[in-house]
Structure formats: C-alpha cells, structure tokens
Amino acid sequence: MKKQIFGSKGYEWFEYLTVAALTLMVSVSVVMTMAHAGYELYHAVTAGLHLFGHDQFVTVFGAFMTVLIALEFNHTVLPEISSGTAIVKVRAVILVALLALARKLVLVDYHKEAFTTLIGLAVLVLAATLAYWVIRKSEQHEVR
After folding, report:
1. CB burial string 99-124: b at 16+ within 10 A, e below
2. For residues 87-97, b (16+ Cβ closer than 10 Å) or e, as one string?
3. How far apart are CA 15 and CA 23, in angstroms?
4. What pLDDT, on the 0 to 100 scale, is given for residue 110?
5. 20 to 30 A from 8, CA-CA: which of 23, 38, 104, 123?
6. pTM reported for the whole predicted model
C-alpha cells in the first residue's frame, strides 16, 4: 500500500504542488523580511547623531540573517523535498538548522542570558554538528 501511494503519479503531483506553494510562501516571506530589514536599517541610521549602537546592529543584522536563512531554505530544502533520497533531505534540513543556530549565537546577549540557556545552545550546536557529520560519513560510504 505504501509503495502504491508514494510512488504514484498522484503523489508526485501532490509533492510538486506542495513544493511550489512552499516556494511561493517562502519567497513572499523573504520580500516581507527584506522590507522589514530595510525599515530597521533606515530607522537605525536616522535615529540620531550617534553611531550605530549595539542594539541597532543586533536588530538590523538579525533581520539580514533571517533573510539569508529563508533564502537558504528556499534554495536547499524545497528543491530536495522531491529528490527521492531521504539522506539529502535530512542533510539540507540540518544545514538550515545550523544556520539558524549561528544566527541565534550571533544575536544572543551573553550577559543577559541564563547560563542554562547558553549550555542548551551549546548542546544544540554540538548535536546538529554531530548529526551533520554522521550524515556526511554515511553519504561517503554510500558513494564508495
């Protein structure tokens, strides 16, 4: 039964339409986030005579990183949803997760966060990195 559903033309069309809809939604999100990033940059520049402060930098850079994550998701994950091999899909999702974790690590205020939150972030980074390493090793063994 599983083979009939997932290998059928109907499911292939469903997958294609789902990827097309997600691509459109992510593209709209990228445009909206870019507009927000532009607004934040304009607001930070015109806020006063002082130089770009830390809070303004975090706000603007966070918006830029969000755009990059959405673009990477659109470029990496969505086309591979219908590629056929699960190993590539997992690798692509982990790469986007690592990018999101990198954004969080850049934007976190280490003086205000609890140490347990920082330890949790470190564990997440280590787990995602280990998962990526295992998947890459698995891919290398499959090629040989």
Report:
1. bbbebeeeeeeeeeeeeeeeeeeeeb
2. ebbbbbbbbbb
3. 12
4. 87
5. 23
6. 0.72
